[in-house]
Amino acid sequence: MDEPLIAIVGAGVMGTGISTLVVGHGVPVVLVDVDEGVLDRAAAASANGLRHARLTGALPPGRTPAKLRTTLSLDDVADATAVIEAVTELPEKKAEVLTAVSALVRPGTPVISNTSGIPIDEMAAWVKSPEDLIGTHFMNPAYLISMVEVIRGPRTADKTVESVLSLLTGLGRKPVVVRDAPGFVTSRLLHPMINDAAQVVSAGTATVEDVDTLMQGCLGHPTGPLRTADLIGIDNLVDALEALYARTGDERCRPGELLLEKVRKGELGRKSGRGFYVYSEA
C-alpha cells in the first residue's frame, strides 16, 4: 500500500487549517496554490496552528508532525493518495481545479471537494471519474473542530466513501455522512441564520454584540452568528450564500446589504483584522 500523501489545493483559510490538521497527525501534505505569497503565509499560519493545537491538546500526544510542502505546480498532486480541493466557493473556480486534478490523479484516488454548498452531483460533471468524487465540509479551524460533514453524491462509489471515512477517523475527526443537496445540512441552516442576524443589525434592532450575546446565552450558540461570520470570512460567506440562493431561490439566502458592504470595504473578518469585530492580529 502506498504511503499516504494528501494533496490540498487552495492555501486560503480552510486549506491552511486542513493542512495543519493533516500534518499534525503525522501525514505529509503537499499544499498547492497559484500565489507564492499566499503559500508563504499559509506555511507560517500552519506552524502557528500546530502550536495552538498542541497547547489545546488537539493533536495526538507524542505524534511528530509530518512535512508540509508548498508548491505552485498542480502537477504535484499526481502521486497523492487523496486530493482535497479547498478553493473559493465559486463554481467556475472549482470546476477549473477539479477538472485539472481529475486528469492528473491515478484512477481510484478520492477527489474531495471541501465545499459549503455546491451539490456534489453538479461537480461530478467536472471530473473524469464521478465515482471518485465526494464532498467534505470542515469547520474552521479544522484542526480544532472534530466534527466533519461528509457529502455523498449520487454517483460516489462505496469505496470512495469508505476511504474518506477511514482518512477522517485516522485524523481524529468524527464524520457524519449526509445526502447531496444545495447547502447540505450545516450551511443550509447556518448561513441563512447569519444573514438574518446581519439584517437584524442593519434594521437597528440590536447591536452586533447584543445579537451574539443573546444567541449564546439564550439559544446556546457557542460563538454567536456574527462572530462566526468573522471566522468563516465574510467574503466566503457571501459566495456561499449566493451559491445557495442560485440553487434554492430562498430569499433568506440572498446576501443582505450589510454583508455586501463589508466585502466591498475589505472587512472580511478575522483574516483581514476587521469584520463585525476588530482583531488585534489579522
From TrEMBL:
InterPro entries: 3-OHacyl-CoA_DH, 3-OHacyl-CoA_DH_NAD-bd, 3HC_DH_C, 6-PGluconate_DH-like_C_sf, 6PGD_dom2, NAD(P)-bd_dom_sf. Residues 6-180 form the 3-hydroxyacyl-CoA dehydrogenase NAD binding domain. Residues 183-279 form the 3-hydroxyacyl-CoA dehydrogenase C-terminal domain. Keywords: Oxidoreductase. Pfam families: 3HCDH (PF00725), 3HCDH_N (PF02737). Pathway: Lipid metabolism; butanoate metabolism. The keyword Repeat does not apply. Belongs to the 3-hydroxyacyl-CoA dehydrogenase family. PANTHER family: 3-HYDROXYACYL-COA DEHYDROGENASE FAMILY PROTEIN, 3-HYDROXYBUTYRYL-COA DEHYDROGENASE. This is 3-hydroxybutyryl-CoA dehydrogenase.
